[in-house]
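Hi R.,

Here are the chain sequences for the assembly we discussed:
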Amino acid sequence: MTESNKEAAPGNPSNVPAKTMEAIVALCRRRGFVFQSSEIYGGINGFWDYGPLGVELKRNLKDAWWHDIVRCPAKGPDGNLISMAGVDCTIIMNPKVWVASGHVGTFADPTRKCPGCGHFVRADQLWDILATSSEWFASLLQEFTPVTGEIDTPRLIKWARGKGKKLAPNLALVRDPEVTLSFLATRVNGQPTAPPDLQEIVRHLATSQLHATGLQEPCPICGGALGEAKPFTLMFESHAGLDKTEDSKVYLRPETAQGIFANFRNVVDSTRVKVPFGIAQIGKAFRNEVTPRNFTFRSREFEQMEIEFFIRPDSAKEWYAFWRDARFNWWKSIGLAGENLQLREHDRDELSHYAKAGAGTSDIEYRFPFTAPGFGELEGVAHRTDFDLRQHAEHSGLGDKLKYFDQEWQVKLQGEGVAKEEINKKVKYFPHVIEPSAGADRGTLALLCEAFTPDAGRPSGVFMKFHPRMAPIKAGIYPLVNKDGMPEIADKLYMELRGKFNLEFDEKQAIGKRYARMDEVGTPYCFTVDSDTAKDQTVTVRDRDTASQQRIGIDKVGAFLAEKIGG
RNA sequence: GCGCGCGUAGCUCAGUGGCAGAGCGUCGGUCUUCCAAACCGAAUGUCGCGGGUUCAAGUCCCGCCGCGCGCUCCA
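And here is the predicted structure of the full complex:
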């Protein structure tokens, strides 16, 4: 193609899209990676379908994970091959599982969160709690004249600067006494015939004047302005059986982890695994997110790839570090190798309740176009201590029967001459858990974002630079033109290899158009049969990233692909 | 959940009260000798959904749904 032709072609530079989420979403839809769920009915917020190419991409990701984690795991920090067992648990489980895990109960009722201190308050109990068990509220009440309820401004300012500062640091009155009280005075003077009652006064004292459009209500702990009331059960509910009663209520699992914990005993008893070992699972989970957003990044239905790795409590540090680094390197190995991937150790105040005492929590994060310059979580690696197994031991009534008996350790301690009593204390225990928990949909999205490469040299202005192992289609097998025996040779090659690789055969239209299509769906190689093939048994290999070509023997194509795609 | 913006063919968009359109892509044909060639032909629309105003609504009004952005949320 000449330079002037290029200007006229659809691939002229003005067609090169910026690497924005909008452009990525458009390509996903145009080429069949991701569609909106039930789109013909207007879609449904937070749910997405994978199309013909998307399902291949996501499957390649999951297959690579399963292969590298379950079937063919690496060596651990102790130099031994890692022991890993797979499971596939149901989405709906006995509801008691979610009581034990803490998902039911704590957050089931309309609840308000304090942005200042993070405290949760039941919405319907707020005023009761303020009246009966809020330290600052009790102290503040003493500053009002009991009978008249008159507002003594200097007295309240004094309180705000003294006791208030210690007891309710986030209360508007404490942060800015003059402005807050003038706000209240305006209200009192504005409607002298309808003086505010105590609740309204307190609302005024909790409201920064910036919020003059509506009154806030204070957190009983710190006085901060509470967020809106929300039912903090993010679990989807359903009913098992025809009778839709409270007793038949079940939940769609909000994480796959609990299925693993609930099966801990079964796996130990049926497979001869010994601590340290892991149980791995890939499966759907559901969270009724308040705000699904950012394409598939936060969906209400999503797929997790989780490992619960069970270890002796005293080896948490080394296993935590091992899994954190191993998982980070794994994401690198499948193509997220650049600056867009980072490993971030959590600060202490970010840690979940059970992880506070642990060896740490870290996130493997990717810089998505919609988070940039920030990062979004792909996978979390957490030391969950023995929290989950203890919870299930307690709630199931199994108690110590859920403990692991470490016979290997027993023998070792006996050899070291440790006292029998001490050995017995040590060798029956709840294993600690290192949990690498990855999002399959987030991983797929990161692969799509990473692959998206604007390039003025391509007809559509963009090509998808997938790692060959992840690419939905591994190669195109094409006759250069649709005559002179070329289609027959190409077809024979295709039939030979299609069982081993996902390939495309296409004899229609100009060769450039076929290459261009493969660029846009990220196919790393195209093999083309031309007029020389019949003479010398070679084909051309066209490389997606460089658009360069070389000739190889037609009998070498399978080996070439196997080597490039790797595993 | 709140606020702002957006929604017409697969994609990018035009159409500001009067016949539903273009380019690209897709498909078929002629052709072909390595990067979306050319030519000929074809298919493709609940104008996001529902209601209202009007002789007449893609266009004006209301409600809803979906998407994006900012708050909020993310155990």
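Chain A has a mean pLDDT of 87. The first helix of chain A runs from residue 3 to 8.

Let me know if anything looks off.

Best,
T.
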